[in-house]
Amino acid sequence: MIQVRQILPNLPAFALAFALGLSACAAPPPARPAEQQPAPPAEPIKIGALYGVTGGMSSIDAPGLNGMKLAAKQINAAGGLLGRPIELIAIDGKTDQTATTNAASEMINVHKVVAIGGLNDSTFALAAGPIAQKAGIPFVTAGATLPTLPEQIGDYFFMAPFGDDAQAYAIADYAIDDLGAKTAYMLVDQAYDFTTALAKFFKERFTSRGGSIVLEDIYRSGDTDFSAQIAKVKALNPQPDVLFISAVPSEAGITTKQFREAGLTAPIISGDGFDTPLIAEVAGEDADDVFYSTHAGLDNPDPKVQAFVKAYTEEYGRPPENAFAALGYDTLNLIADAIKRAGSAEPKAIRDALAATKGFNAVTGQITYVDGQRKPDKTVSIIKVQDGKYSFVKEIKP
Predict the structure, then answer these.
(1) Residue 177 is inside which H or E element, if any?
(2) Among 241, 277, 243, which Cα is nearest to 260's?
(3) Do residues 311 and 288 both lie within one domain?
(4) What pTM does this model have?
(5) Do 65 and 142 sit in the same domain of this protein?
(6) Is 187:245 a contact under the CB 8 Å cutoff?
(7) For 119-162, what is each residue's pLDDT tens digit?
(8) Amino acid 26: pLDDT
(9) What is the pLDDT of residue 35?
């Protein structure tokens, strides 16, 4: 009205009324009622995915991250959580303690994640876990297996896998019961909490069942020449029934290759540090009579395992590389389950729901946290590598 009057100040009254009518006809349509407006996009729930996808842990951490990504995609395709999508914040810890702690801090302080999952080695979990604990952010390790981690780090820290005690006991039992071993040689990487703990528990179980350790030797992560250790083994008479090598993935292939090339034919046994494609890739035709304990056999006919293998293969164009892919998948689904049960994406509510987890059916086994504990009691899978091919042998309940 004011604008028309300003444009036509001296028109007669009837002309002014006509002009006003035209103005009304030309006015824009009224806004749609609020209920008809498109809803703003829901705020995503941000969850950290912390792995060393480069460096020495890459052969198990990269598949773990892929497992988490697959779970996130499936959850979002099904409608997300609490009506909100999941957004994974993935930062490479680079198999380096400083980079890992920096990544955890960035996830929490910059990206405001409500929970973190990942990491497959206890040394790196011990670096990142306390940062999340101090900030009150739940942290679920996908594959770090030091059984004392929850107590060392605090009540916001949870394990998706079993502990080193379980897998060491399982491979010791398999050596005695299935391979008929009475004597063992031990080679232990001194650089990692995982490798030293695994060796301690193996020795404890093997000797408690009447076995004898005929020689213990050590090396340092990053070593590439094992000729000195091999010479000591070859000098033993009689030769040990099994060769127990406690190593992280980067040394699994090279130790296998060098021990076999030296003519040492006794079964090589280990824990989940050997659950890596590097055994076949590095040792080639020498990758035989290797047995290790791990979290799942990917050729296990269990329908849940095979459904995961099928989904992973369709997503990435190749089968899952090892059980750590399944652990990453389970880790995100475990966090998502807690968020659903909590009815909230608030970190303390997630923590409380995680602590109350009972009978969560994961690809790598059922997860239940006994009151006051945050480490599940799960079965252990035994895998055999023969002529470079990996096959599921059996499950053991230690």
Answers:
(1) helix 164-177
(2) 243
(3) no
(4) 0.87
(5) yes
(6) yes
(7) 999 999 999 999 999 999 999 999 999 999 999 999 999 999 99
(8) 42
(9) 55
Q: Which domain holds residue 241?
A: 165-294+383-396
86 and 130 inside one domain: yes
Q: 325 and 235 share a domain?
A: no
Number of structural domains the chain divides into: 2
Asked if 136 and 282 sit in the same domain, the reply is: no
Distance CA 329, CA 325 (A): 6
Q: Which residue has the tokens 């009205």?
A: 1
For residue 236, the domain's CATH number is 3.40.50.2300
In the structure encoding, which two tokens stand for residue 95, read together? 């198999």
Whether residue 358 is found in the same domain as residue 224: no
Mean pLDDT score, 370-398: 94
Distance CA 153, CA 206 (A): 29
Quickly tell me which residue has 């999508």 as its tokens: 85
Average per-residue pLDDT for the chain: 91
Look at residue 15 and tell me if it is in a domain.
no
pLDDT tens track for 334-369: 999 999 999 999 999 999 999 999 999 999 999 999
Residues 6+ apart with CB under 8 A from 369: 158, 354, 355, 356, 357, 358, 375, 376
| Mean pLDDT in residue range 371-377 | 92
Per-residue model confidence as pLDDT tens digits over 161-190: 999 999 999 999 999 999 999 999 999 999
Euclidean distance between CA atoms 95 and 389, whole angstroms: 27
Please compute the mean of the pLDDT values over residues 242-257 and round it to a whole number: 97
Residues paired with 49 in a beta bridge? 90, 117
The answer to the question of residue 37 being in a domain is no
The count of C-alpha atoms lying within 13 angstroms of the C-alpha of 245, restricted to the half-sphere facing its C-beta, is 32
Do 137 and 79 share a domain, yes or no? yes
Would you say residue 273 lies in a domain?
A: yes
Q: What is the pLDDT of residue 9?
A: 36
Using CA atoms in the order 63, 69, 71, 75, what is the torsion angle rounded to 10 degrees?
180
Cis peptide preceding 303, ω within 30 of 0: no
What is the average per-residue pLDDT within 36-62? Answer: 90
Q: Supply φ then ψ for residue 269, to 5 degrees.
A: -125, 150
Is 193 part of any domain? yes
Query: Does 265 lie in the same domain as 212?
Result: yes
